[in-house]
Design brief:
The protein has five helices and six strands; from the N terminus they run H-H-H-E-E-E-E-E-H-E-H. The chain is α+β, with helices and mostly antiparallel strands and 142 residues long.
Length: 142
């Protein structure tokens, strides 16, 4: 009898763990929606250009003299395991002194409608995305 009780206990514990893991993995879709949408995490970034300018000014060692700056409209894209608004940014910035590094492509990731971070290796994310001139980035002050 004692062996049956222990075996049932293990089976019950295993079922409980499986249910918990299943709930964690699928919690976004239990009620027909995603937590990102419900909590406003994917709010449209209305001030995306200003947010990117502020981020680039802090991110770049020398924000002056940028050439060939271009930007995309915000679009929902996969970022890691989540979907976020992403804006692709392309530019040619200075390395040291007057030497230029060549075109770089960044993805600006937004969370709850505001700039969250840059993703540097964004060629795949930004491949085939329509870009428009971004002259504001070319006029950043020091």
């Amino acid at each position: 009898m004692r062996g049956d009780t222990v075996q049932r206990c293990y089976i019950g514990l295993l079922v409980a763990v499986m249910l918990l893991l299943g709930a964690c993995a699928g919690h976004r879709h239990l009620f027909g929606g995603s937590d990102d949408d419900d909590n406003g995490l994917n709010a449209y970034p209305t001030t995306f250009k200003a947010d990117i300018l502020g981020g680039m000014h802090a991110y770049l060692n020398d924000p002056t003299g940028i050439r060939d700056a271009a930007i995309s409209e915000p679009m929902l894209k996969s970022v890691g395991y989540d979907t976020r608004y992403v804006v692709c940014v392309q530019f040619n910035g200075k390395m040291n002194g007057n030497a230029y590094a060549g075109d770089k492509v960044f993805a600006a990731v937004f969370l709850a409608g505001h700039f969250d971070r840059f993703v540097e290796k964004a060629q795949e994310t930004c491949s085939g995305v329509a870009l428009m001139p971004f002259p504001e980035l070319e006029k950043l002050p020091r």
